[in-house]
# Entry
Amino acid sequence: ALDPIFFALARSGLGHAPALVPFGAHHARILAGGTRCELRARPTPRLFLSKIYALLPNIEAFALHGVFDVLGWKAGWEVHMPNSYTYPELQTYTAALLVPWDWVLVTF
# Structure
């Protein structure tokens, strides 16, 4: 989320502030065609794994992908890491695991 300080810095540095879109997830739900819970009602839960191969070196990404595959298999989950997807397809997943792309921006 962008805080007010970011907008003030952008305005002073660029001469204008970027457009604010409050509650972006609300708009994603509309693009997906509304909330369709029946798509997630599957006998086997599905986990959406973010593109770790774009974030980590190949060896580490391969190892981490293998760990999630084994853990998902033992827990009875299908683990998917799609290259592309549509908003309605995202509603077929039970959960998502998103790996931060920039650890400097992430605060815990």
About this structure: The longest helix spans residues 58-75. The radius of gyration is 18 Å. The beta strands are 46-49, 78-80, 95-97. The chain has a mean pLDDT of 76.
